[in-house]
Automatic annotation (TrEMBL):
Record-stated family: Belongs to the PhzF family.
GO cellular component, one term: cytoplasm
SUPFAM superfamilies linked: Diaminopimelate epimerase-like
GO molecular function, one term: isomerase activity
InterPro entries named in the record: Phenazine_PhzF-like
Any Pfam family matching the protein: PhzC-PhzF
NCBIfam families reported for this sequence: PhzF_family
Protein name in UniProt: Phenazine biosynthesis protein PhzF family
Active-site residues, record numbering mapped to chain: E47
Length: 282
């Protein structure tokens, strides 16, 4: 059987070994779903992407975590777009055909920006119950928690301060009970404005996989959903923020969120290639 080459890139990485790592299989023709899941589990990164030909876009892309496939995720979209732009010379304009639809990405050197789908909204559990699920007092939550979907539905919860974001310690049974999205997966973004830097948002993203609670390094889909939450809360466009994740994981990620007067939600960041490899399947 043929070998399958992949590249390791770090996304939302202001330093080379920061941000969220991703494996990009630049030509996945011949792989079936089980093999893609197996390779992703073997690499044990948060996600891997598998590139196929597309008649309607620059490429069709499948996104897998070690446990399941995703319809959309931000750092795999950006990392794959930059990789394809470099390998194929696409001139900085990349269109990816994902399960969530066609996602345009603009690449400028080692930085890329995607345009997410328009948001849809769904009510969440009462704030007091969610605070308990996050291991926080009821007063920690400000604003109205909501499920937002700009490609992958997630619960978005605003907290009163970065200190409370850092203090969040989800209770696994309660978290599971209250944060399930439309794909029946438990996940939530908790975030707060930084009063000392009005252009900065401090955030953490929690999810459950294989029955264990995890925390993501940098979550582009959640950043896009945050843009949808802000619009739904009446935040006047245009606006732009830097969302910082990773302070509590030891690996910083810097995500650029912008929403224009047209209310289009854009998420961007720096992509750095740090390695390459190949799998032989027998």
């Amino acid at each position: 059987m043929p070998g399958y080459r992949y590249r390791i890139v770090n996304v939302f990485a202001e330093a080379a070994y920061a941000g969220n790592p991703l494996a990009v299989f630049e030509d996945a023709r011949g792989l079936d779903d089980a093999q893609m899941q197996m390779l992703t589990r073997q690499l044990n990164l948060s996600e891997a992407t598998f590139v196929f030909p597309s008649e309607t876009a620059s490429a069709q892309v499948r996104i897998f975590t070690p446990g399941y496939e995703l319809p959309f995720a931000g750092h795999p979209t950006l990392g794959t777009a930059v990789t394809l732009d470099r390998v194929r010379g696409l001139g900085g304009k990349v269109m990816l055909d994902l399960r969530a639809g066609l996602i345009p990405v603009v690449v400028d050197g080692d930085r890329a920006t995607l345009t997410a789908n328009a948001p849809t909204y769904r009510d969440a559990a009462p704030a007091a119950e969610l605070a308990s699920a996050l291991g926080l007092p009821a007063a920690a939550i400000v604003g109205t928690p909501r499920f937002i979907d700009t490609g992958s539905e997630q619960l978005v919860v605003q907290l009163a301060s970065p200190e409370l974001v850092s203090a969040a310690a989800p209770d696994l049974p309660l978290f599971n009970a209250l944060t399930f999205n439309k794909q029946n997966r438990a996940c939530a973004l908790v975030w707060a404005f930084d009063a000392n830097d009005p252009g900065t948002i401090y955030a953490r993203f929690f999810w459950v996989q294989h029955g264990q609670l995890g925390e993501d390094f940098g979550t582009g889909s959640a950043c896009a959903n945050l843009g949808g939450w802000l619009l739904g809360a009446g935040h006047a466009a245009p606006f732009a923020y830097t969302m910082i994740q990773g302070q509590d994981t030891g690996r910083l990620a810097h995500l650029r969120l912008s929403v224009g007067v047209d209310r289009a939600i854009k998420v961007g960041g720096r992509v750095v290639e740090v390695g390459r490899g190949e799998f032989d399947l027998e």
